[in-house]
Design brief:
With 933 residues, the protein is of the alpha/beta class. It contains 37 helices and 34 strands. The strands form 10 sheets. A 7-stranded mixed beta barrel has the order 26-29-30-31-34-33-32. Strands 6-5-4-9-10 form a 5-stranded parallel sheet, with helices on both faces. It has a 4-stranded mixed sheet with strand order 1-2-8-7. A hairpin with a 7-residue loop joins strand 16 (385-387) and strand 17 (395-397). Helix 3 (45-56) packs antiparallel against helix 4.
């Protein structure tokens, strides 16, 4: 070993592993057990991965010996107070959340230059992959040329954004971009990018005569469903874009050592029950259990027998059940999957040898680690299910679908219902096809009338990484479609059908099995290789359908094989959204309604007039297995990923030059230099006390990042829409909020602009409006959140947001925090926070404050019309300490009365305190790099 390697080997853990004639250095976890610091067999496998990272990166600077020793002594009852500096192996981005990250890197280079530093210091120090998958929309559907038409529109809309990404690909070190039309980030990660065992070769390893250093693959990503990769034994999860950027720039990701919930899976699934049904069941169980901020680790004979594809479906839903991860350790099924997806023999051999040598391989007879708590599920009890209509944890057994939907129509809004009267619940309206041209699909009729009622399925989409990554699910959908076609069934004409595979591999094996043709016959033509419906890129409804839904004020439904169904996400006109397996998506397209019990009512009638039940056409496990055996092989995967970085001619043709600095265009409506860095100074100013603050919004429970920073369509009459129109952008070219995340002018105007958000300061309203309180609580108008924020800025009034439980759930979205701070919000006071969003608020200099002792806004009698005083943090402030907030009434009857209440400051780690005092994590890193040699 060289001096450079031995100088950091504080625990004499370095060793050499010989694999097929090659020598790899690695840091043995067993060395810590030999020193009496831990018992490896008792540690959950996910904790072992974290421990290896601290051991390998121990430098007595960013990672100390004490960090290693403390984590090695992890216990199941750890209360989550131990700070862990985690340095993952790599970072993964998608273009919605990746564009602002690249914008920030470009802005950091510009700021570094302006402040007299070296811009080339701003480079990823670890591998970064960006997969362009969130920008394509379903404008065209139901035809053979839908895919190409949608791709053409994608490049028309996104030329500026893609130019930025091509600049990054050519100008930044350690940065790769997978171009559009390859697949969804998490499926591409699962099938191609993930190595399971990572290696690095540098001057130090070469000097030691080694072929490289080997260590566990691990990843953080700017998409919350990064956790999908845990199904392959790769530890990873979603973080905010600003946190990801810090990791790229060499900073550890500081986290609290998690509690680990062991989830034992027993037995096997019954016939007709899918991996999706299992995932929705577990989401419901774990949401009820409460695993936010915890790791979940699966074990048991049921987990052992699950193939990686089904494991990935479970792992993908981690954000939906609230856990940081849903981890499956490396085992024989992992090795099988690597072979099945075309990884070379050398890679598989290294994964097996290293994971076994390091104690990261779970054999069938391995002892069960010590878990914080153990939950158990008998897989035989799982039944076919959907989830909805507004949250992924609200599972509905298929047999109860009709009654549950009817109940939701009448349930109050506070219980996630639609609050319809009996008359409204039974309303029927007509979709009138009046001979007008509907260019989006040749499937649409020219003339005629369709009667639809509440629950009419207007969107049916096989989409998202969650389910299209699992071949058996896709084959099941194809087989169901084939049987439906043979019986003469077709979807109702008002159903917008679409198929967005997670990778090109899916289409290849479906074609090989002769299953693409029946899907296309039912209108499930490929519309794009991207996130599409699941992210809100479902595209507009056909005009006659949209008119009927709007004029009739219908609760129209969407059924999608995705992982998210929050209000306003799938389509602005669709109020009820249900998650389902791919075969059930096809079934509901045929039925045309969610107001149906498919276990007792037919999907339709065949060409002979006979009723067709779901059970008649649902494929058996034997049928699925037979096709999977013939259609799947490693070469199908390997062929699709050869030369992948140069596989899109439109991408390759984007004119971009390598350069030190990005050439900002002041006229661009997609990419602008963000003000929070453009205005940065060399020295940080201590955050002052917040005095006389007004509430910008008062919100209830389960406010999502979609509510705070929507990703979908931009309304013409919204502040963002007005800005774009005034900038010369035609309405048809608005694109989505997600696509314009590189432009703060659009995104700040879009903050809190979700059409379904309900602000209690403006009761009876829905959408991004608030009451401007002004001097007293009663003298201001109800107006857009953005316009009110501008008025508060003119009077130099600081702002706060009041909220309930689970504030910031949903997708990882840094603009939910960036937009909040740019509106002038200094603090958010909530009952509880979702993990990623809480960290993002701190990373943007916004103070997250949590009610304590079971108190809530309601129990304290806070209306949001008060003036709020929040003290500055003392010099000796400790993370998670409590402070007192004073609320002074401005209501005429109680004018001047004060309420004092305690809150917990959700700055959870000392490094977060540094971020907050610097005004954000990017400012912290920049100031460090400015002074470093």
């Amino acid at each position: 070993m060289t001096d450079a390697l031995s100088a950091r080997d504080y625990f004499q853990a370095f060793d050499v592993l010989n694999v097929d004639g090659k020598k790899y250095g690695y840091y043995r976890l067993a060395a810590l057990e030999e020193r009496g610091l831990t018992k490896l067999a008792a540690l959950p496998y996910s904790i072992r991965v974290l421990l290896e990272a601290t051991l390998r990166n121990c430098d007595e600077f960013a990672v100390s010996k004490a960090d290693v020793e403390n984590l090695a002594r992890w216990t199941p009852n750890d209360l989550g107070t131990l700070e862990v500096p985690f340095k993952p192996a790599r970072v993964i981005l998608q273009d919605f959340t990746g564009v602002p990250a690249v914008v920030d890197l470009a802005a950091m280079r510009s700021t570094m230059k302006r402040l007299g530093g070296d811009p080339k210091k701003i480079n990823p120090l670890i591998p970064v992959d960006l997969v362009v998958d969130h920008s394509i929309q379903t404008d065209y559907f139901g035809s053979a040329d839908s895919l190409q038409k949608n791709i053409d529109r994608e490049f028309e809309r996104n030329a500026e954004r893609y130019s930025l990404l091509r600049w990054a690909q050519r100008s930044l070190d350690n940065f790769n971009a997978v171009p559009p039309s390859v697949g969804i980030i998490h499926q591409v990660n699962l099938e191609f990018l993930a190595r399971v065992a990572s290696t690095v070769s540098n001057d130090e390893t070469k000097a030691a005569g080694l072929d490289g250093l080997v260590f566990p693959d691990s990843v953080v990503g700017t998409d919350s469903h990064t956790v999908m990769i845990n199904g392959l034994g790769v530890l990873g999860w979603g973080v905010g874009g600003i946190e990801a950027e810090a990791v790229m720039l060499g900073q550890p990701y500081y986290m609290l050592a998690p509690q680990v919930v062991g989830f034992e899976l027993k037995g096997s699934l019954k016939a007709g029950v899918t991996g999706t049904d299992l995932a929705l069941t577990i989401v419901q169980i774990l949401r009820k259990e409460g695993v936010v901020g915890k790791f979940v680790e699966y074990f048991g004979d049921g987990a052992t027998s699950l193939p990686v594809a089904d494991r990935a479906v479970l792992a993908n839903m981690g954000p939906e059940y609230g856990a940081t991860t849903g981890f499956f350790p490396i085992d024989e099924k992992t090795l099988d999957f690597l072979r099945e997806t075309g990884r070379d023999a050398e890679t598989v051999a290294l994964v097996e040898a290293y994971s076994k040598a390091q104690g990261l391989f779970r054999s069938a007879d391995a002892p069960t680690p010590n878990y914080t708590k153990v939950l158990t599920l008998d897989l035989a009890t799982v039944e076919p299910s959907l989830a909805g209509p507004k949250r992924p944890q609200d599972r509905v057994p298929l047999s109860e679908m009709k009654s549950a939907f009817q109940k939701s129509l009448r349930a109050p809004i506070s219980e996630r219902g639609f609050a319809l009267s009996e008359e409204e619940a039974n309303k029927k309206v007509n979709v009138v096809w009046d001979g007008s041209d509907c260019p989006e699909s040749p499937r649409l009729p020219k003339t005629g009338v369709d009667e639809i009622g509440q629950g009419a399925v207007v969107v049916a989409s096989i989409t998202s990484c969650t389910n299209t990554s699992a071949p058996r699910l896709m084959i099941a959908a194809g087989l169901l479609a084939k049987k439906a076609v043979e019986r003469g069934l077709r979807p109702k004409s008002y159903v917008k059908t679409s198929f967005g595979p997670g990778s090109r591999v899916v289409v290849d094996y479906l074609k090989k099995a002769d299953l693409m043709a029946p899907l296309e016959t039912l209108g499930f033509n490929v519309v794009g290789y991207g996130c599409l419906t699941c992210i809100g890129n479902s595209g507009p409804l056909p005009e006659p359908v949209a008119k009927a839904v709007v004029d009739g004020d219908l609760v129209a439904s969407a059924v999608l094989s995705g992982n998210r169904n929050f209000e306003g996400r799938v389509n602005p006109l669709v109020k009820a959204n249900y998650l389902a397996s791919p075969p059930l998506v096809v079934a509901f397209a045929l039925a045309g309604t969610t107001n149906i019990d498919m276990t007792t009512e037919p999907l339709g009638v065949d060409q002979n007039g006979a009723p067709v039940m779901l059970a008649d056409i649902f494929p058996s496990n034997e049928e699925i297995d037979a096709i999977a055996k013939d259609a799947l092989d490693g070469e199908v995967y390997a062929a699709n990923y050869r030369g992948v970085y140069d596989s899109n001619p439109l991408w390759n043709a984007i004119p971009t030059e390598e350069s030190e600095l990005f050439d900002w265009n002041s006229e661009s409506t997609y990419v602008q230099e963000p003000p929070f860095l453009a205005e940065m100074t060399k020295e940080a100013e201590e955050p002052a006390a917040i005095t006389g603050a007004r509430a910008l919004l008062v919100l209830g429970d389960s406010v999502t990042t979609d509510h705070i920073s929507p990703a979908g369509a931009i309304k013409k009459d919204s502040p963002a829409g007005s800005f774009l129109l005034n900038s010369g952008v035609e309405f048809r070219d608005f694109n989505s909020y997600g696509s314009r995340r590189g432009n703060d002018r659009v995104m700040t105007r879009g903050t809190f602009a979700n059409i379904r958000i309900r602000n209690l300061l403006a009761p009876g309203t829905e959408g991004g409006v608030t009451k401007f309180l002004g001097v007293s609580a009663n003298d201001g108008p109800v107006e857009s959140v953005y316009d009110a924020a501008l008025k508060y800025r003119e009077t130099k009034t600081p702002l706060v947001v009041l909220a309930g439980a689970e504030y910031g759930t949903g997708s990882s979205r840094d603009w939910a925090a960036k937009g909040t701070t740019l509106l002038g919000v200094r603090a958010v006071i909530a009952s509880s926070f979702e993990r990623i969003h809480r960290g993002n608020l701190v990373g943007m200099g916004v103070l997250p404050l949590e009610f304590v002792d079971g108190q809530t806004r309601e129990s304290l009698g806070l209306t949001g019309t008060e003036l709020f005083d929040i003290p500055s943090l003392s010099d000796d402030f400790e993370p998670r300490s409590e402070i007192e907030v004073v609320a002074t009434s401005t209501d005429e009857a109680t004018l001047g009365q004060k309420k004092t209440f305690k809150v917990r400051v959700r700055i959870d780690a000392k490094v977060e305190l540094v971020y907050y005092k610097n005004g954000g994590v990017l400012q912290t890193v920049l100031r460090q790099l400015l002074t470093s040699k």
